[in-house]
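ok trying this again, last paste got cut off
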Amino acid sequence: MWIDTPAPKATKKKTSKKQRQAAEEARRRWSHAQGPWLSAANAGSLSLAVATVGSLPEVGLPVWAPAAVGAIGATAAYTKAATAKLPALSRLYRPGRWAGFAGWTSLALAAGGPWSPDLLGVLGVGVVASALLRPASQAWEISAQDRKSAEAQAKERLDLAVTWERRIDRVCTIKGTVVTDIRAWENPHPTDPDQTWRTGYTVKGKLPPSAGLDVLNRATAKLADDADLPAGCGVEVAGLPESRRTFELFVTTVDALAETIHYPSTYTRRSIYEGIPNGVYRDGTMVELDMKWKSTVLIGATGSGKSAQLAAVMASLLRCDDVIIWGIDPNGGGVFEPYLRPWVEGRASRPAIDWVAVDEAEMHKMLDFALAAIETRKIGYTDLMRAANDTKVPSSSAVPHIQIVTDETASLSPELKEKLRQLADRSRAASIRPLVCSLRALSDSIPRPLMAQMQNRIGLRVNEEEDLNYLFGWKSKLPSASEMPAEGYGLIRHDASENPRLFRGLFAAPDSAAVVAEATASWRPELDDVTVRVAPGVYMDRWERARKAGWLPGLGNGPKTTGPKKSTDPAPAAESPCPSASKETSKGKAPGPLGEMLSGLGESIRKKREDIERKNNGGPNETEVDKTFHALTHGLSLGGQVELPRVLVVALELSEGVKGAAVVDIATELRWSRPTVRARMKALEVEEQPKPDRWSTGAKPERGYAREALEATRDRILSGELEVPAGIDADE
C-alpha cells in the first residue's frame, strides 16, 4: 500500500475562504501583528526608555531588576518553545531576545545612563540582529508546523486507507485489495464561490486478480452501511482506464443534496464550450453537460422536477452568446411562451427562442430546415473549419450553435421522431444538436434508434423502474428509490462507458424564464447568413406563421421591437409593423415614399423610351420600344393598389442622391437585424455589393446595395416580372 498526495480532513464542513486565509495569516504571525523590523525597533525603544527613566536619581531602578525580568522571560520562552517542539533556532532566538534586551538595559543602568555612543551602538546592533534573525526563526517554525501537520494528515489518511482495505475485503469477501490514494473533496460552494465545500473523499485502489468492478457495484449499499455514513450519504463506484481492476470509490460524508440548490440569480455571459451547468453531484461538484457535441435526453414523471430541470438547462443555454434555441412543443407552446413574453411585450430586443413549432406542419418545416442546414453549413464554413484545423463547424456569435429543444417527445408522429433521429445522427459536425424530453423513456415514447444517439442521459424520478433501466441499460447499477427522496433528484450519465451518478438538479423558479430572457437579450446571437439561405422564406416567415396560428397571445401582426416602455397602463394591442397591412392604400396614389415613386414612374418609363430611341440613331424602333414599355408596365395598375416591400422602400429612400444604401442603415431604420435584411434582399434577388463603399458623404465604408440594383428590382416588382415572396414584410 502506498499513499501519494496529502489531503486535508475529509469530513469538515464548508469553511469560508476568507476565514481560512485569516487563520493561515494568523498562524504565520507570532509577535502580534508586527513585522520583524517594527518588532525589533519596539523592543529596542522599550529598553532605551526603561534605562533612561530608571537612571534618573528620583527613580533609581536597581541594576538587577531588568536582568531578573529578562531571565524570567527567557526561561518562559525557552520552556514554551521546547514544549511546542520548535526547531533549535527558535529555542535559542526567543530566549536570546529576552536576555539580550534585558541585559543591555541592566548594563545601561550600571553605566549611569544609556546615552553613551558605545551603548547606543550596541543597542543598534542588537535591534538589527533581532530583525534579521526573526524571519529565519519564523520560517523554521512554520516548516516544522507544516511537517507536523502533514505527518498528522498522512497518518490519518494511512489509517483511513487501511480501514477501507479491510472493509472492502470484509464486505466483498475478497482478499488483497490495495488502496493507493485518499483524496478529500474541496469544491466551491454552488451558490457561494467564496466558500469551500468539503463533503467527502475519494478512495482510489486496485482489486486483487480474483475480483472485478462488478463486485464493488453490487456492494455499494453494504459498504455505506459498514462505514456508518450519515443519512443521505453513500458510496459510488467508478472504473479507471489504467486497468479493469482499478477503481475509485466516491464516499459522501456530508449530504450536499439535502437542501434545494437554486439556480444563480446572476446571469453572466457564457459559451457553449464551457458546458451547461444544471445540477450538483453528491460530492458537491457542479454537473455540466457537453451540449456542443452531444445529444441529450431528459425524462421524468409528473412531479419529478423535470420542468425545473429543463428551465435550468434553458437558462444556461440562454446565457451562451454562441447559441440559438429552437423549440418544438406539441402541447401548444406553453413551455416556450414565458421566454418569448418579454420580446412580445417590448421588454427585450430579441426573442429568447429563435423559432418555435407547435403544430406538425411547422415541426416538419423546422426539422427539414435543420437537416438541410447540415450540408449547407459544412460546405459554407469549409474555410472556417480549415482555419480551426477541425472537421466540425466552430461555434461563435457569428456562427451560433443551434440547440433544438423538444418537449413531450412521446406526442410526436413517427415521421418527426425519425427526423429527430437523423438530426442526432448527422448534425454533430454542423453544430446542431437536439435535446428531447419526455415523461417516460420507453420505446413508444422515444424509439430505440433515437435513444441510441443520446449520449447525455438524465433520468429524474419515475413511476416505473423499467424507465430508468431502458434509459441507462438493464445492466447498469442504479441507486435505490430511497436515495432520491425529493423533487429534483435524478441520475445522469455523460457517456455509455460511465455508470449513472446521483445528482440533484438546480431549481429554476417559473418566473426565471422572463428574467433570463431579458438579462441575456443584449448578447443574443442571430442565425448566420449561410444557414438562412437554406430556405429564406421558411425561416423569415416563422413568426408570421406563429401569428396566424395564434398560439402566442399578444403577438398580433408582429411583436413590438422598439424597446421597453415604462408604463403602468395596460399594454395596447400590438400594431401592425407593416404599413401595407395596417393602412388602406388609396387608388391612384400609394402613401408616403411609395406614392412618390409611383408619381415619378411615368417619367421613368418615358426616359427609358428616349434612351432606346437614341440608341437607334434618333429614330424610334417601335418594336423594341413597345417591348420595353410593356415589360415596365406589365401587371401594373397605376390607378390601383400598389405595394412594395418595406425593406426595398427604405433602401430606395436611403439611396436617394447617393451611390446606394448600407445594410446597417437599412437594419437601423427597420429595427431589424442585418442577417434579416440580407436574407430578405436575397429573396428579392438584390445582390449585395462585394466590397464596402461610402454610401453617404462622410460615412465609413460599409457593405450595401447599389442604387441601380435597387431601382431595377423596384421596376421588376412594379411590372409584375418579380413576385414578392409572402411574409417579406413580417417583423422579426
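PB: full thing came through this time. The radius of gyration is 39 Å.
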